[in-house]
Amino acid sequence: xxxxxxxxxxxxxxxxxxxxxxxxxxxxxxxxxxxxxxxxxxxxxxxxxxxxxxxxxxxxxxxxxxxxxxxxxxxxxxxxxxxxxxxxxxxxxxxxxxxxxxxxxxxxxxxxxxxxxxxxxxxxxxxxxxxxxxxxxxxxxxxxxxxxxxxxxxxxxxxxxxxxxxxxxxxxxxxxxxxxxxxxxxxxxxxxxxxxxxxxxxxxxxxxxxxxxxxxxxxxxxxxxxxxxxxxxxxxxxxxxxxxxxxxxxxxxxxxxxxxxxxxxxxxxxxxxxxxxxxxxxxxxxxxxxxxxxxxxxxxxxxxxxxxxxxxxxxxxxxxxxxxxxxxxxxxxxxxxxxxxxxxxxxxxxxxxxxxxxxxxxxxxxxxxxxxxxxxxxxxxxxxxxxxxxxxxxxxxxxxxxxxxxxxxxxxxxxxxxxxxxxxxxxxxxxxxxxxxxxxxxxxxxxxxxxxxxxxxxxxxxx
Length: 463
Description:
Strand order of the largest sheet: 1-15-2-3-6-4-5
GO molecular function: ATP binding; galactokinase activity
Distance between the termini: 27 Å
Order of helices and strands: EHEEEEHEHHHEEEHHHEHHEHHHEEHHEE
Pfam families: GalKase_gal_bdg, GHMP_kinases_C, GHMP_kinases_N
Keywords: ATP-binding, Kinase, Nucleotide-binding, Transferase
Shape: globular
Largest sheet: 7 strands, mixed
Oligomer: single chain
Protein name: N-acetylgalactosamine kinase
Family: Belongs to the GHMP kinase family. GalK subfamily.
């Protein structure tokens, strides 16, 4: 499946309320009908937070909420971008003049990340101009991968508009590199699940090489996504990239301590592989080799035997070059512990038939709770609103609950018995959302039970 290109599906646009609305808006904007539609889903990460860019497997699933783009080629050599949401302004740029301003993460730059990545991947091919109308149902800055879904949708649309075909894996790998144009040093989870997802299945996504394997979730389990109503745009702050840098520094300091060629090792997963230890042993190694207090720049440079200029050039990123305090112990301990929890979560799902639903869900819930505690206390990627939301979810009947996505705002995902979803949602509205009456509509739109859906696909209007 992963070596195949995304599906091209026929759709009766007139019988589909959403596609009919998008087509009508496209006609109004561009004066003609779209030639095809590209769709890429958002995702919820069930467990495995902030470890994909360290080389470790994660366990997400695609959700119903998505980005859909209506597309028609043009002969002007211009990419014309519009959005069905009037909050987002139109934008146009020549295909050979695309520049992405990292300091201004506007919505259209995410689309152009996907366009530019595919354009560069295609090499000498001169890309066609495109008229594009984007429609999204993923709440922005919610931790459900709206930005990556936009990048993937744009990449898929660009591929098809230029009459090319490539596998889902290749598309995922290209699109995973695309967000670096806007300054985000992610690991590839979001793009991988967006392309490789299958209906009814969560996926264990592994890297180097990229591969996905099915994870069957317990039949009595539902996952409910709830919005903390706190928003954080990871491209507009240094929080995300700072964690990437701290993990990179922890890798190098630990590698040098063990006498390895530390300059060539950049990820905690690579260090783990070279040492040949089990994950619990890696946690112990963190406790033995790193101290709890933050490291300052001078100490890191002294430990590695390098000048500050080399640190900036080879380790720090553009928006972390002024950093002078690095929490290496906490970040590394989270990564190794979280990687172990992903393995345990998968194992519990595989063994689900040998235990009762209640027993299986209790074990999964405990892993989710431990994950949130680690994100909160060691990785420090939670926030007061998320912590309160997770606490309210657990009090309202969730078996387990944790932040999902980059954090610092956005959503929580909760494991809830199928028969208790409605009661859970009613209790949570009373416990959490009643204090934010102005946000009730947002809360309603962002609190939903979800099942795994199909990954990215192309749609053509049935004749």
